[in-house]
Design brief:
Elements (H helix, E strand, L loop, with lengths): L1 E2 L5 E2 L6 E4 L2 E4 L3 H14 L5 E5 L2 E7 L3 E5 L2 E5 L1 H17 L3 E2 L5 E5 L2 E6 L2 E6 H13 L16 E6 L2 E6 L5 E4 L1 H11 L16 E4 L2 E4 H17 L5 E4 L4 E7 L2 E5 L4 E4 L1 H17 L3 E5 L2 E8 L2 E6 L2 E5 L13 E2 L5 E6 L2 E6 L5 E4 L1 H9 L3
Antiparallel strand pairs: 1-2, 3-4, 5-6, 6-7, 7-8, 9-10, 10-11, 11-12, 13-14, 14-15, 16-17, 18-19, 19-20, 20-21, 22-23, 23-24, 24-25, 26-27, 27-28, 28-29
Helix pairs in contact: 1-2, 3-4, 5-6
Length: about 375
């Protein structure tokens, strides 16, 4: 959690994150991941390393593929997957102006907030706090907020000396030492923070309830096929779908077919399986769910009431009906301040929601299908 401009706590785990198959990690890792995937595409291998940012460690290595391990989750990326994620990483790094600087400090601008990350910790600062902090550093005195100028919040302590600036967060005990180059970069960013549309809301795609278990659209077709198989044959092909935001397992049990997510367990008999398979199929048809698999990347499309969704392993992008693709090739740019952004990168068409940081990359065939949904 972090504190916003008016003291409102904001859940930063829901914004400015990177999803790679089952792994979810912060923006500060973007420069390191970009270096690794580019190295893999150029040389076919990656130098093994452990990257630390914000107090967490990411292990990067090669086992014929790019192998990533973060907070007990692991994934392996083939060349096609690497090309996909290099595009999404590059787009996020560009949109949020992610910069790796000296002393392994990573700075990023997320709307009106600035992220300062380094190997041991991270601090989020709103632009009013950055303004007060830089004025105090320049003057060498505390700032009181007089004459309509913002004051430093009570939780932030600063200390200047020899051109450096030490920040201490009294709420968490986190601290970070900035050099002259970091201070200059904050000055630049303060003048160019995005004018975010505070009214923009990131919408979540619908899920399908199944006896207390929420079936996500990206797994709905797989689960419907599994239930059909069990009802017809009594057998179950085990399913384990681990994304960065949810888990779904299906397996045979002595009582029937067992479905679990991270907290709910459901057991269905063959008769119940037939019933729920029918319910899933009806919802799949109603929402016009379709999916395409490219390497390990599963792209799921859905549409309801002229509103479209594109889903890719935890990245969920909502596209209002009036903001559809503008032609087959033209780049639209930002569709609304702080909202949806579209761009072409490395042969992919990308859509990114500034509010949630969800980002999807579509091939030409996938983009053509998506564009056809608006017609």
């Amino acid at each position: 959690m972090r504190e916003g401009t008016r003291g409102i706590l904001i859940d930063e785990t829901k914004t400015a994150m990177i999803n790679i198959l089952s792994i979810r990690l912060g923006l500060a890792f973007a420069p390191y991941l970009l270096d690794a995937v580019t190295e893999f595409l150029n040389k076919g291998t990656v130098q093994s390393r452990v990257v630390r940012q914000a107090g967490s460690g990411l292990i990067i290595r090669t086992e014929g593929k790019v192998a990533l391990r973060y907070q007990s989750r692991e994934c392996f990326l083939g060349e096609e997957d690497v090309r996909h994620y290099r595009a999404t990483l590059a787009f996020r790094a560009d949109v949020y102006d992610v910069m790796r600087m000296s002393d392994e400090i990573v700075i990023s601008t997320v709307g009106k907030d600035i992220l300062l990350s380094y190997p041991q910790s991270e601090i989020w600062l709103d632009r009013l706090t950055v303004d007060a902090m830089l004025r105090a550093h320049r003057s060498g005195e505390s700032v009181s907020g007089e004459r309509d100028q913002p004051a430093l919040p009570d939780w932030l302590s600063i200390s200047s000396g020899s051109g450096r600036l030490l920040l201490s967060d009294g709420r968490t005990g986190r601290w970070i030492l900035l050099g002259a180059d970091h201070i200059c970069e904050l000055e630049r960013r303060l003048a160019s923070c995005h004018n975010v549309n505070e009214q923009a809301i990131s919408r979540k795609p619908p899920t399908i309830p199944l006896k207390g278990l929420s079936v996500h659209l990206q797994s709905a077709l797989t689960l419907a096929d599994t239930l059909d198989q069990f009802e017809r044959t009594g057998d179950v092909t085990p399913v384990e779908e681990v994304t960065s935001t949810y888990l779904l397992k299906a397996s045979k049990s002595t009582q029937g077919i067992e479905l679990t997510d991270s907290s709910v367990r459901v057991v269905l008999t063959a008769r119940e399986a037939r019933k729920w398979a029918g319910i899933l199929r009806d919802e799949i048809d109603r929402l016009k769910v379709a999916q395409v698999e490219r390497g390990k990347i599963r792209t799921t499309f859905a549409q309801a009431d002229h509103e479209r969704w594109v889903l890719q392993w935890g990245d969920e992008v909502f596209v209002p009906g009036e903001n559809g693709p503008n032609g087959e090739r033209g780049i639209i740019g930002s569709l609304e301040p702080g909202g949806l952004v579209e761009k072409e990168v490395d042969g992919f068409r990308l859509l990114l929601d500034r509010q949630s940081s969800a980002c999807v990359a579509l091939s030409d065939a996938e983009w053509s299908y998506f564009a056809s949904m608006a017609r």
